[in-house]
């Protein structure tokens, strides 16, 4: 399945055994089994449920998700249907709303003139009951929770009315006879009006926020109220939304599940929900009323990015019926848009600019078997199945994504999206990056629209440091792709800019400061601030060129750069726990170390420039981690492809043609080289010149096309390379050689040797060089001449003779 649902709570499995132990009566269990359902989930994760006992009384209990224990809260000795329930953080007060109908369908005798009864009960111990509301409109209740658990002498209760207003009650309590809690002045509870004349509301119990939509001059305006730990509240922002809520039945999100709602009718209603996460993202997901089942339209307002994306998807084959409405699920950095049996769209809300970073699945590719009943998205990637009373923790299934990449991803957009979804999972426990690397090693040339290796290097390195620094998404690239013009099959997209100047954030604390930072960045930062290696490329080429020509920079400057490289290598070594097959980081590869050190310097300067509030030590470590990750990814790719063909270090056979396995290794190495060169990313220093590694290098050079092999040898400062260059030079001179009578010696060799065969041979070469130069203007390449050949021959002979 693309989405994996792990059961977090099951109202029957987690509650019924406790009831059985207490009651010991099968009749009670049978009645409870039929009526047991979830009413509310509080901020601390505790779950309030209700059921009917064998007398028809309404019973309330709470499940503590920390201790995994059940606690009885209150029994209301009337046969009434509970609509909503909440308990304060100290579990001393309980509020509940009931619809007053008996089994015979007549009104309750308690308040015969009202439809909905809202009660406030002292439950520590159970004592008085106060009627807060007795009206003909439905009421929902919700206690406010402070950020820290405490034994306060005041609680605050929200009452949300179907008549489109929200009130907050201030409840003072006193303690008598030890721990007995009593409501003070229960007949005159202070209250204030929070909001009114709205058409939609959503409660965020985790962050204690209330979102609601008001209609102002026929326009929908989204507002948010933040409740603070000091019992105050603030209107945080207002934002006009170009959406139509006409025909919307009055609806609340996350105020508990209303059992009375007809789900078949609700699926034809507009759907609206707000999702946030700690990075300062704010998404409004909206689906209008369906006019036709031939296509489904849904929009996501990425307020933190400044635009709205509207998607139009075909839900299935012609004539297929969408039995359930659209479902939006908050998965952290992803939002899932889901219609059971039709499609699943995993939207990347952290980087929503390009459609290729979001995964759209239909039909058999979807492979998501989510419950067909109504699902309610909760903070912390939790999902409530309202019918079964189960709470799940929803995650993207990495094993499915890997299966999809290996077996079902045919288009470049699918590969890109699945890769990014998999790397997003890298922040989850149990993520196995080696599976992603293995797939890329096998499919390095499989994409035409982008380079897979480049995408892995940039995206994986980005996500590895993403949790370490705030605003890193504004300063580091997360993808090698800057634009995507190809359509995503099955879904059409329209992007519109939002009038962010109309959005006003009224408080800059915590999450709201991050959101405001995102808004300011979108409004005023042009161009974007992503780091790139263009400065490093110029400086690196300049340093290498100066070293070749004998020019030198300041000794201190070069030393600092090389010291940066040493820090990266040491950082890599501390993170490498298992022995590696490929012996990298063994020699002083000065050019690569200069590149590593320059990148450390430039990236550090870039982050310090834009993160002035972050301590430099933290920035330094982030830079080292980022570049270490780049080098380690390259190392892991090489390690993966080598291990595929052998379980131990091997050397290709020098006396035979290269095998298919050796070609595959070489091909991947060239792809890595191309990818890193175009990005100016460093490579881990290569093999040293041990006997095995020399043979390996020579076997590769010997199998290259002749011209390419000659170019490679000029960069390899090694006696074997000199031999190859000398052989090529001699072969070129002797190509048209015809033996002629030997004249007197043209000149003396550069080496005072008495080895006559060599002296004779060098004499011939010198003569041929003179002839070629006279006829063709021939000049030895790279200072290769007979003297170079003589020196190489002598050194090679000395090695062979063991001298």
TrEMBL record:
<dbReference type="Pfam" id="PF14959">
    <property type="entry name" value="GSAP-16"/>
</dbReference>
<dbReference type="InterPro" id="IPR026172">
    <property type="entry name" value="GSAP_fam"/>
</dbReference>
<dbReference type="InterPro" id="IPR028010">
    <property type="entry name" value="GSAP_C_dom"/>
</dbReference>
<feature type="domain" description="Gamma-secretase-activating protein C-terminal">
    <location>
        <begin position="631"/>
        <end position="686"/>
    </location>
</feature>
<protein>
    <submittedName>
        <fullName>Gamma-secretase-activating protein isoform X9</fullName>
    </submittedName>
</protein>
């Amino acid at each position: 399945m693309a989405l994996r649902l792990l059961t977090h709570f099951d109202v029957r499995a987690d509650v019924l055994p406790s009831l059985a132990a207490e009651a010991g009566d099968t009749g009670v269990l049978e009645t409870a089994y039929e009526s047991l359902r979830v009413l509310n989930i509080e901020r601390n994760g505790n779950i309030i449920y209700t059921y009917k006992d064998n007398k028809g009384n309404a019973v309330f209990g709470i499940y503590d998700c920390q201790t995994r224990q059940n606690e009885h809260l209150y029994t209301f000795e009337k046969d009434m249907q509970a609509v909503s329930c909440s308990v304060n953080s100290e579990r001393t007060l309980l509020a509940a709303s009931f619809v007053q109908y008996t089994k015979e369908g007549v009104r309750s005798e308690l308040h015969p003139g009202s439809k909905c009864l809202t009660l406030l009960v002292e439950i520590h111990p159970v004592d008085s009951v106060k009627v807060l509301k007795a009206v003909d409109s439905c009421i929902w209740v919700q206690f406010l929770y402070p950020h820290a658990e405490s034994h306060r002498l005041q609680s605050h209760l929200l009452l949300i009315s179907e008549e489109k207003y929200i009130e907050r009650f201030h409840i003072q309590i006193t303690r008598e006879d030890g721990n007995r809690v009593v409501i003070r002045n229960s007949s005159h509870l202070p209250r204030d009006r929070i909001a009114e004349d709205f058409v939609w509301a959503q409660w965020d119990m985790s962050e204690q926020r209330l979102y609601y939509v008001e209609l102002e001059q026929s326009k929908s305006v989204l507002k948010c109220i933040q409740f603070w730990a000091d019992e105050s509240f603030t209107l945080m922002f207002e934002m006009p939304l170009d959406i139509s809520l006409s025909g919307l039945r009055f609806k609340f999100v996350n105020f508990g599940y209303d059992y009375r709602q007809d789900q078949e009718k609700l699926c034809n209603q507009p759907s609206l929900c707000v999702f946030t996460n700690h990075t300062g993202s704010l998404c409004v997901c909206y689906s209008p009323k369906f006019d036709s089942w031939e296509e489904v339209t849904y929009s996501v307002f990425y307020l933190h990015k400044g635009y709205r994306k509207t998607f139009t998807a075909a839900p299935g084959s012609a004539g297929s019926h969408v039995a359930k409405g659209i479902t939006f699920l908050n998965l952290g950095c992803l939002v899932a848009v889901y219609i059971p049996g039709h499609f699943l769209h995993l939207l990347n809300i952290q980087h929503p600019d390009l459609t290729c970073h979001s995964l759209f699945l239909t039909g058999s590719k979807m492979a998501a078997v989510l419950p067909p009943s109504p699902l309610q998205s909760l903070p912390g990637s939790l999902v409530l199945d309202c019918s079964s009373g189960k709470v799940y923790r929803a995650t993207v299934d990495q094993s499915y994504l890997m299966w999809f990449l290996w077996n079902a991803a045919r288009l470049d957009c699918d590969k890109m999206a699945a890769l990014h979804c998999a790397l997003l999972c890298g922040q989850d426990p149990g993520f196995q990056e080696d599976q992603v690397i293995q797939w890329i090693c096998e499919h390095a040339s499989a994409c035409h629209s982008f380079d897979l290796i480049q995408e892995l290097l940039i995206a994986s390195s980005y996500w590895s440091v993403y949790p370490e620094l705030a605003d890193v998404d504004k300063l580091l690239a997360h993808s090698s792709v800057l634009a995507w013009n190809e359509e995503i099959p099955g879904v059409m997209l329209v992007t519109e800019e939002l009038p962010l100047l109309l959005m006003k954030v009224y408080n800059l604390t915590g999450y709201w400061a991050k959101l405001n930072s995102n808004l300011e960045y979108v409004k005023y930062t042009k161009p974007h601030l992503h780091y790139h290696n263009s400065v490093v490329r110029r400086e690196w080429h300049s340093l290498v060129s100066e070293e070749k020509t004998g020019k030198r920079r300041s000794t201190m400057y070069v030393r600092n750069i090389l010291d940066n490289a040493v820090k990266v290598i040491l950082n890599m070594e501390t993170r490498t726990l298992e022995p590696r097959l490929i012996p990298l980081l063994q020699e002083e590869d000065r050019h690569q170390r200069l590149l590593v050190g320059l990148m450390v310097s430039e990236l550090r300067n870039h982050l310090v420039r834009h993160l002035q509030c972050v301590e430099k030590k933290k920035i330094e470590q982030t830079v080292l981690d980022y570049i270490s990750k780049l080098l380690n990814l390259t190392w892991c790719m090489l390690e993966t492809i080598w291990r595929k063909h052998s379980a131990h270090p091997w050397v290709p056979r020098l006396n035979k043609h290269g095998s298919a396995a050796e070609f595959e290794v070489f091909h991947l190495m060239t792809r890595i080289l191309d990818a890193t060169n175009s990005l100016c990313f460093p490579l881990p220093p290569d093999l040293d010149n041990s006997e095995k590694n020399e043979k390996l290098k020579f076997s590769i050079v010997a199998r290259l096309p002749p011209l390419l092999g000659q170019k490679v040898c000029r960069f390899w400062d090694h006696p074997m390379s000199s031999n190859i260059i000398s052989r090529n030079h001699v072969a070129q001179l002797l190509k048209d050689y015809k033996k002629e009578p030997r004249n007197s010696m043209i000149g003396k060799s550069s080496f005072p040797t008495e080895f006559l065969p060599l002296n004779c041979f060098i004499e011939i070469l010198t003569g041929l060089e003179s002839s070629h130069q006279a006829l063709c203007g021939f000049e030895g390449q790279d200072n290769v001449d007979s003297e170079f050949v003589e020196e190489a021959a002598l050194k090679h002979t000395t090695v062979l003779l063991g001298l």
